[in-house]
Design brief:
This protein is of the alpha/beta class. Helices cover about 45% and strands about 15% of the residues. Strand 1 and strand 2 form a beta hairpin.
């Protein structure tokens, strides 16, 4: 299906893939068709891609869930999902989550380039990425609670890991908005730049990631991503194992 039909497109240029939400007329509000396309992208991604940049077309990253779909009666609507048996409903949500989960695949580094609103599903899409570069006009909100819902697109654990339980609870339970300065202060942002410098900053960060050995970056990501679940002793062992693999590969003795 075309980007016009799905509202999302993937463009690959060597080692860099760019995933763009392209419904600027509705501030890139998301729907199940977009999530299906995003799941498909994860399977179609060329093997030489190392960095995925996620962005929104126009003046917003994503205004969140498309309420015109959710409030209707078709696939993905509240009415349709509420009528499903529990397991079928949860299976459908798992399919939606898969559109986000692949962005922290161990062999990729993903960057969210956030301009304007990143609300609800938009906030969770930014959280799905490893790194977040924010324009100064970026605004986050976990607004699901205002609809009587919970965040369910794999964003809750990522949020707690970044800002801690108490701050995450306050953000999710109030649904309030956070500007770029606060996001930077509490650890949500990798970098905050003026709006006109967003593309350049993402490009510089991408270049820095690509300048180094791919397998070393993959090992580093695995070490850091798993660190919170390991003891100091376990983490040190993981470091030793990773370094042993690197040394063997560097001298041509890898598997």
């Amino acid at each position: 299906m075309t980007a016009e039909a799905t509202g999302v497109r993937l463009e690959c240029d060597g080692s860099v893939a760019t995933l763009t939400l392209c419904r600027p007329d509705v501030l890139n509000a998301q729907n199940p068709a977009m999530w299906q396309a995003m799941r498909d992208f994860s399977r179609e991604l060329p093997g030489d891609v190392r960095v995925v940049v996620v962005r929104g077309e126009g003046r917003a990253f994503s205004a969140g869930l498309d309420l015109s779909v959710a409030g209707a009666s078709g696939p993905g609507s509240f009415a349709e999902m509420s009528a499903l048996p529990d397991q079928e409903c949860m299976d459908q949500i798992a399919g939606f989550q898969a559109a986000f989960n692949w962005l922290h695949r161990p062999d990729l580094v993903s960057i969210a380039a956030v301009q304007g609103h990143a609300i609800g599903a938009g906030f969770q899409l930014a959280l799905a990425c490893d790194l977040r570069v924010l324009a100064e006009d970026a605004r986050f909100s976990m607004a699901e609670v205002t609809l009587g819902l919970v965040p369910d697109l794999a964003g809750t654990k990522r949020l707690v890991e970044l800002v801690g339980y108490a701050r995450a609870l306050e953000i999710c339970a109030t649904g309030r908005r956070l500007d770029a300065a606060e996001a930077d202060r509490i650890g949500l942002a990798t970098l905050v730049v003026p709006v006109r410098e967003l593309d350049g900053a993402v490009g510089d960060l991408t270049a820095g990631l690509l300048a180094n050995d791919r397998n070393a970056v993959v090992e580093i990501k695995a070490l850091l991503a798993g660190a919170s679940g390991r003891t100091h002793v376990e983490q040190q062992r993981a470091e030793r194992e990773a370094q042993t693999r690197r040394l063997r590969e560097l001298v041509g003795r890898g598997e």
